[in-house]
Amino acid sequence: MSTVGLGDTPLVLCNYFSGLSLFISKKGIYMLALGIDPGTAICGYAVVSLEGNHLTPIRYGAVFTEKDLLMELRLKKIYEELTAIIEEYKPDFMSVEKLFFNTNVTTAITVGQARGVIVLTAANRGIPVVEYTPIQIKQAVVGYGGASKQQVTFMVQKLLNIRETPKPDDVADALATAICGLHSIDKRKYGLELKR
């Protein structure tokens, strides 16, 4: 990702999209992404920053819901926990993995329900949502759309300087989704270009 040089300007603040803010520092664009790997039982999340060309993991983990809970209560838990994360870290945008066709209809429906709640959570906080296919995410992180999960996790650890393997896999996927968003988001579309 290219950076924006501002000479000796210490800091510029650009307003965009429903009052959110993008910082342009001497090191370049500073953006904060919330990456999400949608799921009902496990919903991976990752808050990652990009300053210039430097990626930093701020917080990552997963929202777990009990399978014995009513579906509406599981979705409510996902909504509430992601809302708390958004309110604490105020990400510039949410990066979400697109739902792809699944031969298991039941799984596809439950993941779709979770994904709807996740997107609603962002919309309620005025945060733009960008979506990427698994192939796009792998391409952005590994450089190859057919990469294995192990290869994606390995590159996530290298790019973010994380020593321990993120667990469960949903967390590594959320980190990868955040990285993809930070490197691929259409800044002009979302008003993230430096205003001169």
Molecular structure report:
With 196 residues, the protein is of the alpha/beta class. Helices cover 38% and strands 27% of the residues. β2 (20-25) and β3 (28-37) form a beta hairpin. Strands 1, 2, 3, 4, 5, 6 and 7 form a seven-stranded mixed β-sheet that branches. The protein has a single domain, classed as Nucleotidyltransferase, domain 5 (2-Layer Sandwich), CATH 3.30.420.10. α1 (71-89) runs parallel beside α2 and α3 packs across α5. The chain contains five helices and seven strands.
Outline the fold blueprint.
Blueprint: E1 11-16, E2 20-25, E3 28-37, E4 42-51, E5 54-64, H1 71-89, E6 93-97, H2 105-124, E7 129-132, H3 134-141, H4 149-160, H5 169-184
Parallel strand pairs: 3-6, 6-7
Antiparallel strand pairs: 1-2, 2-3, 3-4, 4-5
Helix pairs in contact: 1-2, 3-5, 4-5
Question: Which characteristics define this entry?
Answer:
globular, 5 helices, 196 residues, 7 strands
